[in-house]
Each structure stands twice: as C-alpha cells, then as structure tokens.
Amino acid sequence: MTHSPTQKQHALHVGTLAKGLKLLRVFDESHATLSLSELVTRTGLEKSAVQRLAHTLHAEGMLDRDPATRRYRPSHAWLELAYAYYWSDPLIARALPKLVDLSQALGETVNLSQMSGDHIIYSLRLPSQRTHFAASIVGRRLPALATASGGAMLSTWPEAEWQAAVTDWPVHGMTARTVTDRAEIRARIARSSAEGYMITAHQMILNEISISAPIKGVSGRSEAAVQVAVSAHSYDEARVRAEILPAVLDTANGILA
C-alpha cells in the first residue's frame, strides 16, 4: 500500500510528544508560572494527561516545580536550548558584531528580527538605557504585519506572496494606534518595497518609532531584518530618516544572509 506525504507525516507524528510541547508552549510573559489546573485550562488537555506530562517534564529537567505552591515554571534547560540555537544559526554570528557597532554608534535600541511563521521573533537585542525589561529579552514574538521589521522583510518577497500574507496573517491592535486596516498595511509594504526600508510609529509601544531594513539573501528575499527603536519624544520621522536610516541600511547591507 502506498502512502501520500500527508499520511506518512501522520504516521511519523508522535502524539504524546506533541502534547508535551503544547504544554511547554503555554508559558509566556503573562503566564510565567502555572498551577496544574491552569495548565489544564490553557492546554485544553485532560487533567490526567497534563498531570503525567508535567511530572515527566519536571523529572526530565524541563520544568521547575515550587514545592510550596506546586506551581510550574520553565527551567534552566530552556536557556540551554537557546544556547544551542545560537550556535546552530550562522546568521547570529555574522550579525552580532555589526549590531554591536550600530548600537554603539547610535546609542539606541538595536534588534535582529527573523520571520517565524506569521510572526517575527527577536533573535538579538541590544537595549539602550531607556529600554524597559520586556523590550530587552530575546525570543519575543510579535505579529509580523504590525511591525516595521515584518513589513520590511515581506516587502522583499514576490508580490503574490506578501499580498497573500496581508490577506491571511493575523492583525492585532497592540496599541490604540496600531494599524489594523489591511489596505493601509498593503500600501505600507508596497512603499517599503520601493524604498528598501520601513518606518512605523506607535505600533508596538506608544511614543516609539521603529525603523527596519531587510537583510537580503542572494535571491533578494529576506527572512531577517535590522531594527532600531527610538523615542518619539526625541525623534520625528524626518530626523529618523536623516540620522538613523543611513546607518541601518549600511548595517543590513553588510550582513550576509
């Protein structure tokens, strides 16, 4: 009997492992510690299954458990996995010295973002003195359509692909001024395609201006971007273009994807 690729994928799929990964993924900045009942609620799995999975993940060192409160939280093993990721992605090693130079030259927050499905994820973050804690931690994922770096990356894709992304990908109002109108998002990406960069304001954080330039591969397509965030109290978009844009473009063009 022959199997389709979909059938082969299902045959190789390990359901118990998938459930364990689902449990791990429910932890985030708003749910840093969780009780067993909260794990059940957030995963949607049976209590007995969650109890076995949580016990196993704790025994294997993936979750810490407070003996007093019995609440679970991610363990240091997650940092070990992040460490392995950094060694596995050659772009990180190529980008880091360039981003350090950019950070020192500008004195502003500098990030490396990468496309992760329909989100972007911050892989490197070099904070400025004004940066708050949440904006300095790597691994944060944000909806790509609401970010300057997501738009900058999409603008290098074939038009049919980025148009489809604008139609299908999620749009969330992160602030009262986040652009959620898909026609406006389309116009913004089209402009970025012509200009080679994207500037946004007040999208993720009020009173923050973000500028991003794509890091292009040999095909011209981008899956990563350099992003700089500045305070709207200190900069307007004209000043960002005059003082920040040249350095951001130089940095992005100097990193081989």
Explain the overall architecture.
- It contains 10 helices and 8 strands.
- The chain is an alpha+beta fold and 257 residues long.
- The protein has 2 domains: 5-79, Winged helix-like DNA-binding domain superfamily/Winged helix DNA-binding domain (Arc Repressor Mutant, subunit A, Orthogonal Bundle), CATH 1.10.10; 89-253, 2-Layer Sandwich (Beta-Lactamase).
- The chain has a 6-stranded antiparallel β-sheet with strand order 5-4-3-8-7-6, sandwiched between helices. Strands 1-2 form a two-stranded antiparallel ribbon.
- It is globular, with a radius of gyration of 21 Å.
- Residues 1-8 have low confidence and may be disordered.
Topology:
Blueprint (H helix, E strand, L loop, with lengths): L4 H8 L2 H11 L10 H8 L3 H13 L3 E3 L6 E3 L2 H12 L1 H17 L2 E8 L2 E8 L14 E3 L4 H7 L4 H10 L13 H14 L2 E4 L6 E9 L5 E10 L5 H17 L4
Antiparallel strand pairs: 1-2, 3-4, 3-8, 4-5, 6-7, 7-8
Helix pairs in contact: 3-4, 6-10, 8-9
